[in-house]
Amino acid sequence: MNSSPEELASTILVSSKQTRFHIENPVYQELDIEGLNISVATGAGKSGAKPKGKARSDGLEILANASLKLKAGIHYALIGRNGTGKSTILKAVAEKLIPGIPLKTRISILQQTSTNEALSGSSSEAGELSKEPPSGGQLSVLETVIDRATSRNEIQQEIDVLSKGVEDTGNHLAPIRALRQVQHDRLKKELFEADKDARHRSGSRGMAARKTLIAVEKKVVESTARLEQNETEINEETLKEETLAASDLLAELQSQLEPGKIAEIEAKARSILSGLGFPPAFLVKQVSTLSGGWKMRTNLAGCLLQPTDILILDEPTNFLDLLGIIWLQRYLLQLREIGPNPPTVVIVSHDRDFINTVCQELIILRDHDLTYFRGDLNVYEASIRDKKLYLGRMKDAQEKQKAHIQKTIQQNIKQGKAAGDENKLRQAKSRQKKLDDRMGMQKSATGGRFKLNRDLAGFHFTSRAEIDIPADEKSVSINLPEPPDLRFPGSLISLEKVDFKYPAARKGPTQPTILQGIDLTIHMGDRIGIVGLNGCGKSTLIKLLTDTTKPTTGTATHHPRLRMGYYSQHAVEDLQALGHAEPELTALALLTRDVGGELSESELRGLLGSLGLPGRTASDVPLTKLSGGQVVRLALARLLWGAPQLLVLDEITTHLDFHTVTALAEALSSWAGAILVVSHDRFFVRRVVQGVKDRVEGEEGEEEEEEEEDDEEEEVRRRIVYVLKGGVMKVLPNGVASFEESLEKRVQKLLAS
Fold it and tell me: Which residues form a coiled coil (predicted)?
């Protein structure tokens, strides 16, 4: 995930269909690439050379003969299950490894990385591979964001070199030495890009790229010679021309960093950082001192600020609270109205509400292919359900009709042979031909009625395609073990008049109160949701619930037979760190170590399989090779093997695709135990805590039986959503929607300021 450019080039293998015609597309926000193949090599050499022939098929195949189509200014959501290669596709686009992406296309990408490498996102502009934080990350947050948008640090370095040369009155060659040094450094960057382009192009494009590379190499050689020229080799005319050129270039660079322009960019950077939740004091902090979450937000701010043709955001809502998510939604919606050429946006996110609000079209990655759908996730899922229902009914009706006709044919054959009636046999043969020709899809590929003389192309065993009912696109089903009985009644957890503040230092100031007046009781079967902005005290409340800290005042009691399963928001990072410490450790081995012999291997495999880690995935794949979603499933297995009655889930959706989030929400909704959810994912809170199923606008309530079951369930299940603000916890009468409405008003003020 955090590969260097050289590693990336050697492991991601890309090819696409090329045309022999020379086509110039001035709309850089638009892509139309056919025959796209992307795979990740498992044994690429250090040389970076791409394997040819059959070697290309080795490794993991991501796309096979797919079509990548992006329309200018449209916001897309790339959806697909964990581990199918969404991030790899985005990297291939951002690094311009795909033939057909113009080198002048400006592409900004926020990469989904580990928190330790959160600032490694790249920005490709006019062939520029990446902009790493200069000076080893010694810049402040504000300076880093501005530098990514303006290349201020790079321009300032060139200004410093030229200024030193122009102002050196004691050496008349200093200006041209400085000019030649700046030009040489630029040529070296151009050489790197030309070399990368030549290595990733083939055919006519490859030939043109290699010619360009040879030309740039020649320029670098000439530039090196000019740098090493002696004073006696430089004539008076060259001296005057290049001295003037040095002064002109210095003036041009200084104009790019005019205080007025920088002030305008700085104001916009401050606005973006504020919207993403940065307190003013954080803007002057060095990026290297920040946690992974804040580094990721710094990177996101840089991507949003810089000019771009294609903006790629891989899980941008990670580490954002709901205020930041809503602000980002509004900001991306405003991008559509910017100028005549708004950027094309491609987003990968597990947050269903975020996708539904921001994205106009879906790109569905499935079975190594890309398909497209205009609409949001709810409409897409409804269309899939409708299509499956329609095709299922059609297939059932045709099977009945086919059985009836086949029976008639058999009767005709039997009667014809018995009576020697050739007409009966011919009639049976004719009916069999009609049966073969007319059974199958009733519509053509264009959606119209199927016509044999128009829609039958090529050789078929039958005239029409078989009715293919789409397979269920949800992730693997998740089955949760039922919780054991408590044997005697009582609340699972009870907090009464709880206050909490950290102990004050002996001679230090009094510590502020983090939580005050907290009353919370959780019974078997309850659904409790906790929402609030970052820093409001949710983590402290969880520590009180899990008995890892004690209240300053008030009482916290737990049922004596309570078994609790706690999913920490850092569970994935902790397991990944454990995997790096023990490279051979697998999910099954870790779980076996956890249970200490209380469960057999077959029982552990059954648990892992029910959560989506079957067979060899559990026993043979090291933790370091598991996807984020698979690590979440392992973390769940570590909670569930002890059969808890209460699950405390802190940001469990962060590393899951939306299919898995949906499957997990469905499993939790029907689970008999109690659940406390802390999450910024509005869909997850609505479904698990409030028991609300999202409906497509205009869709009739087709599941009346399920609604009746939900009504019966409401009689025995408490569903409450609390908001934490300023250490005080209050009930939200309309659930997460109330919290969302209050934040919408705050975002409007932020964007208006």
Answer: none
